[in-house]
C-alpha cells in the first residue's frame, strides 16, 4: 500500500468535499474514542496534532497531568461511507503524544509499535495477522437479547435474515480500504462472521477497531444492534476472534520449512511454544472481560486446553494443513482471543510471547490430535496439558505476576490495566445473579 503524505490528505479533503475529520484512538480497554475537527483545522493537526484532556480517557493520565496530543496517522485517512456524502466526514487514527511530543506510554497503539520494534531487532520484517471476528445481531441492546434468526453455520435464505446487513457492512469496509475474504452465518442463532484479508499487525489492529465500528454503524442503520460481547446467549456458542499469524523476513515466510516433514520451521515451533507457555499469563489481555470466561468453557467450540494441533480445533493453537505451492500461507491460528479485546494490546502480547519462545529456544510439545474435550482431567494431567484460567479474577492474578505481560504492556499500561480489571472482577463478584435468586432463595 502506497504511503500517503500530508499534501495527499489535504488534496483529497479538498477534491472530495470533506468537511469534518474525526480523530480516532482507543482507551486502554480498546474502546474507540474520537473528536472532530473541520477541514480548516486539518493542516495544523497534521503538523502539530490536536490537544485534548486525557484525564477522562480510561487508563490515561490523572487530572494534574492530563494534557495529551492526538497526532493523525496520514496513512489511516478514510471517508466514512455511512455519513452524508455531501460535506463528507473522514476519519484518521491517531498516535497519542505527550505535550513535549514524545510517544505516550499509555497509548495502546504505541504498545503494539514497541512490540514490532522488538520483532525487527530479531530480524523479522512483518507480523502478519488474519483475525476472524464473530458477532451477534439482536433487535436492540436490552437484556432481552431478541435474536433476528435461528440460523446455524453457513445457513442461507430464510434462516439467514442478515445477508443484506452483511453485504452493506462488507461494502462499507472495502470502501474504507479493508479487503474482505468471505462472510457467513455462524453456528449460533443470529451470529455472523466477516473475515478480513491478512495484513501487518499495526494495520490489522487499526482495521479491527474500524471493523467493530462499521459493523455497529451499519446495524444501527438497519434498526438493529450488533454486539461483540463474547457470550451473550446462554447455551449457545460464544463469539471468538481466531487469529491466524505468521512472521516474514522480506517476502519469505519464516514459519515454512521445506526440509521438515510437517513443513513447519524451527522458528514457527519456538514461536508457538512461546504462546503456549505464556497463554495463561496473556489470558487477561485476549479475554479481558468477566463475560469472556463464560465463553471459555468446554463444549462450545472455544479452546481452553493449552495444546497445539495440525487439525484438532479443540486445541488452543491450530496449524492449518500445508498445501504444495502455498508456502506463504503457512501459519499458526491462536483460537482463544475474543472480539471484545483491545487488539493493540492483544497482538502485542501475542507477539512478545512468540518472540520469547524464539529468543529462548522454547521446546514445542508433541501435537495433540485427539479431541481434548473428550479427555478426562486425569488424562490431561498425565499428558501435561494445562488449561486457561476459569475466571477474569484468576486471569488477572496470573497476569499481575507475569514479567512477560509487564514487559509487553509497559509499566504504565500494565499497572492501570491490572487495576481496572481487579475492580471489574470485584464489582462482578459481589453481584446477586438471577440463578442464585431462582435456585437458592426458595430453598434456603
Give a written overview of the molecule.
It contains 13 helices and 16 strands. With 444 residues, it is α+β, with helices and mostly antiparallel strands. The chain folds into 2 domains: 6-104, Roll (Ubiquitin-like (UB roll)); 113-434, Creatine Kinase, Chain A, domain 2 (2-Layer Sandwich), CATH 3.30.590.10. The strands form 2 sheets. Strands 7, 8, 9, 10, 11, 12, 13, 14, 15 and 16 form a 10-stranded mixed beta sheet that branches. Strands 1, 2, 3, 4, 5 and 6 form a 6-stranded mixed beta sheet that branches. Strand 5 (78-79) and strand 6 form a beta hairpin. Helix 9 (343-359) packs across helix 12 and helix 11 (392-400) packs antiparallel against helix 12. The longest helix has 27 residues, at 403-429.
Q: Approximately how much helix is present in the residues?
A: 25-40%
CATH architecture field of the largest domain: 2-Layer Sandwich
- CATH C-level label of the largest domain: Alpha Beta
Intertermini distance: 65 Å
C-alpha Rg, in Å? 22 Å
- Could you tell me the number of beta strands? 16
Low-confidence segments, given as residue ranges, are: none
CATH level 3 topology of the largest domain: Creatine Kinase, Chain A, domain 2
Order of helices and strands: HEEHEEEEHEHEEEHEEEHHHEEEHHHHH
Biggest β-sheet description: 10 strands, mixed
By secondary-structure content and strand pairing, the structural class works out as alpha+beta
What coarse outline follows from CA principal-axis ratios? Answer: globular
For this entry, what is the oligomeric state of its chains? single chain
In CATH terms, the superfamily of the largest domain is: Glutamine synthetase/guanido kinase, catalytic domain
Number of domains: 2
